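re: ur question from earlier - yeah i can do the single chain one, its not a big deal. heres the input i used so u can compare w yours
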Amino acid sequence: MAVPKKKTSKARRDKRRTHKVLTEPTVVTCAKCGEPVRPHHLCEKCGTYNGRQIKAIKE
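and the output i got, formated as tokens:
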């Protein structure tokens, strides 16, 4: 089993962990209804994607 020869310093340990951070999901507004949606996803409220009606929504 591999055993480290020297203690890893706090600076080196933290440098390795710099990319492990949570980020907020990107949100854009729907062009038709103005609801917040994720980019490149279908709007669940009005059923449009890229300006086209994709899904029929019951009102």
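Residues 28-59 form one domain. not sure if urs matches, ping me
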